[in-house]
Amino acid sequence: MSSPIEIGYKRKCSCPENHLSCVEARQWLKNQLGVWQFQYEARDVRSKDVHPAVFPISLATRIIEQFSHAGELILDPFVGTGTTLVAAQDLDRNAIGFDINEDYIELAKSRISRQLSLFDTEQFAIREDARNISNLIEPNTVKLLLTSPPYANLLNRRRKNKSRRGDQRKNCQYNKIEQYSQDERDLGTLGAPEFEVALKEIFAGLRSLFLPSAHLLINITDAWIDGKRVPLHISVIKALESAGYEFRNTIIWDRRNIVNRIGIFGWPSNYITMGTTFEYILDFTVL
Fold first, then answer.
1. What is the largest CA-CA distance in the chain?
2. Does residue 12 form part of some domain?
3. N- or C-end of the chain: fewer Cβ atoms within 10 A?
4. What is the mean pLDDT of the chain?
5. 236/124 Cα distance (integer angstroms)
6. For position 113, which CATH number holds?
7. 204 within some domain
8. Is the predicted pLDDT of residue 136 greater than 70, yes or no?
9. pLDDT of 143-192, one tens digit each?
10. What pTM value is reported for the model?
11. Can you give the residue range of the structural domain that contains 206?
């Protein structure tokens, strides 16, 4: 069994003990609105040749500010390209991210190493299966989990770009499988029922790591596979409730400001909402 990673987790600010975070009342009021928008910036990874599904630094920044204090420990069990770590570094939070994909871990390390940090907090990217994380972090140290797990087998098929207009349909992504990997441990290779079971197993194993006031924020979207709606956000809720967490809030990530040239899908006889225009950010606490 590996020894736990030595990393800070105690708050550095002077906020009252019962405050969830350092957020001021004005920002708290803004964050209460359940629909959020974000912008990408130059530091964000946007190329799908690098990673098929990323969230912007601005998303991670807003969540980390709302649910943690300076100096506390942030966990991302599916860290991908390391966006959670980049935001944590910006905000003076300690953070650990895990992924089974070596290329993603190397990219995450590169992103955090080339930034100039003014703080003494640390951010680590580690290649490891999320099922083994409990062996690597001290119990009762994590204040916030922020992650976007693979969306079951949504990407594990050839892309047809049915939502794109005209000549945009046969772009560089057309007929391409954009899956993260074909590793049997990868949640992105699983159908929705198996995905739910795997999530329950992983998050049940993480419960001992969290502080009593910890929150878990999970970004997920629903899928449209083989002509049927697959409600993955419900799978996530069921999995985490079964693993011992309380479902608290839904935030809608309104993506309309970053989606361009959407084509008509299903007209005139089959009404289907476009998954590219919104995603879920689900908020849980530890029971």
1. 59
2. no
3. N
4. 88
5. 26
6. 3.40.50.150
7. yes
8. yes
9. 999 999 987 555 554 445 455 555 655 555 545 544 555 666 678 778 88
10. 0.88
11. 25-286
Would you state the pLDDT for residue 192? 84
Domain membership of residue 5 (yes or no) is no
Task: State the Cα torsion 187-163-40-143 to the nearest 10°.
Answer: -30
Q: Which amino acid is at 214?
A: A
Q: What's the average model confidence in pLDDT over 220-240?
A: 91
Distance, in Å, from the CA atom of 172 to the CA atom of 176, rounded to the nearest integer, reads 8
Predicted local distance difference test score (pLDDT) of residue 72 = 98
Which pLDDT value is given to residue 18? 95
Kindly report the three-state secondary structure assignment for every residue of the chain. Answer: CCCCCCCCCCCCCCCCCCCCCCCCHHHHHHHHCCEECCCCCCCCCCCCCCCCCCCCHHHHHHHHHHHCCCCCEEEECCCCCCHHHHHHHHCCCEEEEEECCHHHHHHHHHHHHCCCCCCCCCEEEEECCHHHHHHCCCCCCEEEEEECCCCCCCCCCCCCCCCECHHHCCCCCCCCCCCCCCCCCCHHHCCHHHHHHHHHHHHHHHHHHEEEEEEEEEEECCEEECCEEECHHHHHHHHHHHCCEEEEEEEEEECHHHCCCECCCCCCCCCCCCHHHEEEEEEEEEC
Write the pLDDT tens digit of every residue in 253-280.
999 998 877 778 788 998 888 888 999 9
- Cα–Cα separations (whole angstroms), residue 264 to 138, 221, 226: 50, 20, 18
Contact between residue 11 and residue 70 where contact means Cβ atoms under 8 Å apart: yes
Classify residue 18: in a domain, yes or no. Answer: no
Beta-carbon count within 10 A of 58 CB:
17
Structural domain count, the chain: 1
State residue 174's pLDDT score. 45
